[in-house]
Write a structure and sequence with these properties.
By secondary structure, the chain is an alpha+beta fold. The chain has four helices and five strands, in the order βαββαβαβα. A five-stranded mixed β-sheet has the order 1-4-2-3-5. The longest helix has 11 residues, at 70-80.
Length: 81
């Protein structure tokens, strides 16, 4: 997990191009989603974190985003109810 405040914009773009970052998340709310998600783009930089793969986000206790990962979110929600 990489915190957005700990990396430069150029460094972040480089990691995305190299496919070393595939998902973003909100550390405060424990939600992860795709890098192109409109909800994720609105979050504060201080709360934003990045993950190499989905398994890493799940392992850290993050749940899927209800907007960009709707099917996974519904499955996650059904499992906790």
């Amino acid at each position: 997990m990489i915190r957005h405040v700990d990396i430069s914009d150029a460094g972040l773009r480089k990691l995305i191009r190299q496919k070393k970052i595939s998902f973003g998340g909100n550390a405060r709310l424990k939600i992860y989603g795709t890098l192109g998600c409109s909800s994720g783009k609105r979050m504060k930089k201080e709360s934003r974190v990045f993950f190499r793969e989905e398994k890493e986000a799940i392992g850290k206790g993050f749940r899927p985003c209800g907007h960009c990962l709707n099917d996974l979110y519904k499955k996650w929600k059904d499992e906790i109810v």
